[in-house]
Write a structure and sequence with these properties.
- Chains A, B: One of its GO terms (cellular component) is cytoplasm.
- Chains A, B: GO terms for molecular function: glycosyltransferase activity; histidine-tRNA ligase activity.
- Chains A, B: Keywords: Glycosyltransferase, Transferase.
- Chains A, B: It holds the Pfam family tRNA-synt_His.
- Two copies of one chain form a homodimer.
- The first copy, chain A, is an alpha+beta fold and 376 residues long.
- The first copy, chain A, folds into two domains: 250 residues, 2-Layer Sandwich (BirA Bifunctional Protein, domain 2); 49 residues.
- The first copy, chain A, is 33% helix and 23% strand.
- Chain A contains 13 helices and 17 strands.
- In chain A, the strands form three sheets. A nine-stranded mixed beta sheet of chain A has the order 2-6-7-13-12-11-8-10-9. A four-stranded mixed beta sheet of chain A has the order 15-14-16-17, with helices on one face. A three-stranded antiparallel beta sheet of chain A has the order 3-5-4.
- In chain A, helix 1 packs antiparallel against helix 4 and helix 4 packs parallel to helix 11.
- The two termini of chain A are 39 Å apart.
- At the A-B interface, strand 1, helix 1, strand 2, strand 3 and helix 2 of A face strand 1, helix 1, strand 2, strand 3 and helix 2 of B.
- Strand 12 of chain A pairs parallel with strand 1 of chain B, so a sheet runs across the interface.
């Protein structure tokens, strides 16, 4: 029987070919291997879950963004996962509810949504990450940020920038020292997102009090000084946040560029006190993000957690990690024992199936002549 | 913000937890690493494609078995992949149409269908495989079968049984030396599936001529003798098949159990002259299968291909590959340099976040005391 020829692929869904597919798999492996050495153990949640539990757990996810199907068994709507972090939270709250804390889990796999976002047309992407469940302390944040950096560096990603944010800072200020009504709160957020000082001031004196946060943005140490001056004006209302950021920054190596954007909220819909975005030199857009959040346990209590997720597709698209293996052509009748030895030494062998094959066309640099390697 | 607690998972979809998730990932890695050393290069097709192209390419797949969604961009129906082999065929026929042949590709990833089959309730499973495109010769079959065996053995799977089949044998006989009408052909297939000699004879003399095939089943060498006797009766009509099977069997090591079931067709809906199933000692049901097939190229020509796919979930479910890493507890203030050295030596470290953590509860066998390891 014959397979019918293919049509085009749907927009936003694509094939990864050699060598990018291997580069993608290698990067994920190295990240997972590194986090494993820090005690993070692999979990594999399913590709699909009931839609209602997925959308309830992902406040930022609208049902119409999900790839959905009706489950003939339960007659309920299934949805493909648009994210794995929430699935890992579910695992921690259910099957691993009684596992000792802190619980360290890692994961990697494809996530998919029905509509692409404005910045990237891809609807399927690889997510790789690690979550620490049972704590969102400064010590936990130090561990997560440093494990993320170590994992990326082990995978060969250099020129990293980490951008810190304080996702619930505005809520915290609005509910305390700098009160805002609900409608003002959203307007202030919008202008802080736009870094539009004029528009913020135009919202009135309550909103204008948030102006120093626009300035507390940029290279970490200078931005922190401005954030500390703002904190002093507020009588130390965000002392704990300042101390937390300082502690997280302290062990980060000189080879990492640190920045601060305390009001950044894009991608931090469920994070609370701390968030961070990861960028790599030469690549547009973030390659990962992380932060602290809460998981609702079956007993109704919140459990603190912190983690990071990487989305390495933009790196791979840009050619990161393309490594050509050494390919060795084996003519018909080549010495099988010697070929096995050479594979063990790192060669990838390509065996002839007929007598007149051309190993050079098959991208082999050498061929096996008896026990000897000969260059093409 | 808080993540809402999870409901149950849909039937047939489940979480893999430690250590099974790691065992599954490790098995897939080792298979992919082994096939890579034989020149198979990784591809990553997308999770979803247009439904019509998927169902056209998978004759055995009914549309109602697929997880489907309407694509808002194209207004066409998308379907989640129930299989990756056909996707690899599509890649070979399109984006890699002009790549030199033979083209060797590998892949690994989840596949999903809406309804489980009778034997296993799982609707999502891991598929790992390799395809050789451009040849379905005996030499190509020898390579594929032996690469599959080597990959499984490298992953630690022992006690392998390979069951050979000839998927198009009945069609070939019915169109030639042992003619059958279309309705007879299906009845003969059914009785051969059931190995019901009495029912086969009852279908009449044309059908009864297929009786020797029921006997040509079982341990390879004895079954081949009976198949050869049958071939002699037919005047050598299946000489090429006999020679092919003999050649494929020849290099297979004594540690593999070989069997023959020349009329087995379950799971071989698109294979032609050669197919094989893989079983592992102690596990019910096949863990993989492979065989020869044809890909329809864009120019309307068939291109021969051969490959194998593994479905390792049953092995993992049965506890295969569970390896507990050595876990080392790092008390607060532990020597970071020494900890990094120990990670490089293979330890997985688990760092305390607070002073009173109990490393033994976190399944650590040892803790770091200065530069020394101490057992709990």
């Amino acid at each position: 029987m014959t397979m019918i020829p293919p049509g085009l692929l749907p927009e936003g869904l694509s094939d990864r070919l050699p060598p990018q597919a291997e580069a993608s798999a290698r990067l994920a492996r190295r990240v997972l291997d590194t986090v494993a050495t820090h005690g993070y153990e692999r979990v594999m949640p399913p590709l699909a879950e009931f839609e209602d539990t997925l959308t309830q757990r992902l406040k930022s996810m609208r049902a119409q963004d999900l790839v959905r199907a009706v489950d003939p068994v339960s007659q309920r709507s299934l949805a493909l996962r648009p994210d794995m972090t929430a699935q890992v939270g579910r695992i921690a709250a259910t099957r691993l509810a009684t596992a000792p804390r802190p619980l360290r889990l890692s994961y990697a796999g494809p996530v998919i949504r029905l509509k692409a976002n404005q910045l990237r047309p891809e609807r399927e992407k690889l997510q790789v990450g690690a979550e620490l469940i049972g704590s969102d302390s400064v010590a936990a944040a130090v561990e997560i940020v440093n494990v993320a950096i170590e994992a990326l560096q082990a995978a060969g990603v250099s020129g990293l920038t980490i951008d810190f944010t304080l996702p619930d800072l505005i809520d915290m200020l609005a509910a305390g020292p700098l009160p805002l009504a609900a409608d003002e709160l959203e307007a202030v957020r919008t202008e802080l997102d736009a870094k539009d000082a004029g528009a913020l001031v135009a919202l009135g004196p309550q909103a204008a009090a948030y102006l120093p946060l626009i300035e507390a943005t940029g290279p970490f140490h200078a931005a922190m000084e401005r954030l500390e001056a703002f904190n002093a004006q507020l009588g130390g209302a965000i002392n704990s946040r300042i101390a937390g950021l300082r502690a997280i920054a302290r062990p980060i190596g000189w080879d990492i560029t640190l920045t601060l954007d305390p009001t950044e909220r894009h991608g931090f819909e469920y994070q609370n006190w701390f968030g961070f975005s990861i960028f790599a030199e030469g690549f547009i857009g973030e390659i990962g993000r992380g932060g602290s959040y809460a998981i609702l346990r079956a007993d109704g209590q919140d459990e603190p957690a912190i983690g990071f997720s990487l989305y390495p597709d933009p790196l791979i698209d840009a050619g990161f990690g393309d490594e050509a293996p050494k390919r060795l052509f084996l003519p018909l009748g080549a010495d099988a024992i010697r070929a096995a030895e050479l594979r063990a030494e790192g060669w990838h062998t390509v065996a002839a199936l007929v007598g007149d094959e051309d190993g050079a066309t098959l991208r082999c640099s050498h061929w096996l002549d008896g026990a000897e390697l000969r260059a093409f």
